[in-house]
Structure formats: C-alpha cells, structure tokens
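Much of our argument rests on the idea that a fold can be written as discrete symbols. Part of our work consisted of pairing the sequence of a single chain with a tokenised description of its backbone. We regard such an encoding as a compact summary of how the chain folds. The amino acid sequence and the backbone structure tokens for this protein are reproduced below.
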Amino acid sequence: MADTHLFLFGGGPPFNDVLGKTFAHLSSNGLNGTQVAVLFMERDGWKEYMPRYTDVLEQNGIAHFEYLPLTPAPSPHFIEQLSLATGVIICGGDTERYREYVVDTEIGKIVKRMYAEGTPVAGFSAGALISPNICVIPPIDNRKNEHLFLPGLGLIDHCVVSVHFSKWKEETNLKKALTLTNAYIGYGMDDDSGIYFKNQVVSETAEQVYFYRNGPAVE
C-alpha cells in the first residue's frame, strides 16, 4: 500500500518554503513524468495569479503545470491530464462551488484514487475545507450564512479543519464542529500556515496551527 500525502493550507498561496519543497519532491516521483495539475475556478486575472501557486515548486524543480479550470462537465482533456498528474493542487475561492464541482464527481473519484496510490494533494483554503471526510463551511463562507456540514472528499477522516482561523475568528465554530461531528481533533490554520499529513498523521506544520481535542487549544 502506498503512503498518502496531504497538504492543507489555511489561506491562499504561496506554498510555505519547507512544505513546498516536500510537495515538489513527492511530485517528482511519478511514472509518467512530473506534471502538477492545478484545479481552479476560472476568473479574470487567473493566469497572472497562478505563479503564486507555482513559484516555490518551480524553485524546487517542477517545470510542468497543467491548469485545469473546474466546470460542471469536465472535458476529456481535463480528465486525461488530471489522471497523468504526479501532484494535485486544489486552489482557493468559493468553497461551495469547489465542493459542487469536485466532491461526488468524476474529478473527485480520480483525485481520491490518485491520492490512495501515493500522489500528493494540496488544498488551499476552499481546497483544504473540502478535503476531509466532513466539509465544514463556516457562516462567513457561504451564501446561507449558516454553519454547513457536508460530505467532503474523504482524503482524511479523523478531523475537521478551519481556515483563515484568526482572521475569521473561527475558534467557536471549530469547537462546535468538533462536538457536532464527533471528530477526534480539529485543526485551525491561519492564513500563512499549513499542515502536511503523511498517512493521515501530522508530519510537518508551517507557521501557526491550532490543535483542538474537545478542550483548550494547544499551539
């Protein structure tokens, strides 16, 4: 059985230098040649924004990126290029739309299969929120202005996560999510922070991450 590698970030790019180096190293071991797939919601200025995701990886030897805009009906080219990837990045943005276009879709099935086979997956903000078994979206981040608890990708199954933790003042929401989901642990990630899970266990952290086990925070 292959090791699994999940990188979750509390805000947008760039990759932290240390975690970016680790992700780049893991992405360089693919059998089909190195190719990192970047899954994103297309909007004005996206091409100019992409270097924020890729610069650190390029500095660590990744030269080929396939930019794949998410749609309700992905093209055969999208599916083919995603399947060839040796690393996957799920970008940030509208969490509900990311969840709609990735979770419980063909894209989600492919990402889960690749992840189980050892392909590293990185999620930024919205990409991080949809990655666990339960996707917890706080009121500030959805149109209903409610605390949403929805099926996620299931790349990690023992925890709930919160992004933009300090900026959005998410401590109360994360504690509530822990109680309602009966998750073992909650991770609160500030905008510049990140966690690398190897085989669903925390291997490295970057900057400020808060750990909640149905009790006081432990930094």
About this structure: The mean pLDDT is 94. Residues 126 and 199 are 22 Å apart (CA to CA).
